[in-house]
Amino acid sequence: MATLLCANNLVGDATVTGSPCLPTAPLSLVQTWPPSLRAVVPAVGTEAAPITVSAAWPEARLVSYVGLFDLNLRQSSLASLRIYGDSARSYLIHSEVRRVLPPLHEPQYYLFGDDNLFLGGIPEQEYMSVPTSVHFVFDPLAAVVVDIALWGETYTQAGDNDSQTEIGLIWVSGSLEVACWAGTKHRRDPQGQSASVPGVGDAIDPGLPRRGATLRLDDLDLDDAGAIASFICFVGDTQPYVYIPDHRDPAVTWRWGGLYRLSSVTESTTTERGRVALDLQLSEATI
Question: What pTM was computed for the model?
Fold first, then answer.
C-alpha cells in the first residue's frame, strides 16, 4: 500500500483568507486544533460562486499534501485545488478538481431506490459514520499560494440539507511515503455511552467510533528507518498528524484516512544485515 504520514502543518504560519464566515466561527479556526471547532460560512457554494479558502506564505514551502477535515459536504460535492509558485498567482504549478468521495461502486450493483443509485456513492448513513475529509496528494512542489474552492450540497448533524458550509481544519505539508505490509490492521473502537435517567429509562449516546491502526513496516533499510525515526521524534505522542493508508484507493482512504496520534512504537532487527522492522500503533486524534 502507498501509505502516507504527514506532519508539520504549515497552515499555522500562513496568511489565510477566504469567504466571509460567521463572527462566532471565524475563518481562523481552520488553522487551529481541534478540528471540531469549525469555521462556518453562512452559504453553500456553487460552481459559479464557490466557498473559497487561500493560504499564502512570504516564501515558498515544499508541499506534497493538502487536506481538509471535519467538513459538512456531501459525498457528491466538489473540491478544487490550485497551487501557485508566486504571490501574484501568475505561475500555476498544480491544479485539480475532485469529488469529496469519488464513486466507490458501479451503479449496476445497487437496487432501484438505493441512496446514490446513479452516482456510485455509498448510503448517506454509512458516509456520515466517519468525519468528512478531502485529501489531495501530489509530487512535491514549491508552493507560495494554495487556493481551495468548495461547492455542492452540505448536511446537518441530523442528515438534512444545510444552508451553510463548515470547515474544521486545513492541512498543508510534505509527506512521508512508507511501504506497509500484510500485517497492517485497522480497528474501530466504540465510543457510545449510556446513563440511567430516573422515571425515563436508559439514555444512550451512540457517539462516533474512534478509529485506530497498527502499521507493520518490515525489512527497512537504514535510510527508511532513519526517516521514520525522525518522523516519530517530531510528532512524539501528542502531536496530531495525517495518516493516509493508501492514497491510490479512495475506499480505504475514506474508511481509515484521517488525523491520528502515535500511541506506541515497537522495533526489532529482522536479519543479520541489520535491517529493521517497526510496529506503529495509531489512535484517531479527536481533541
Answer: 0.88
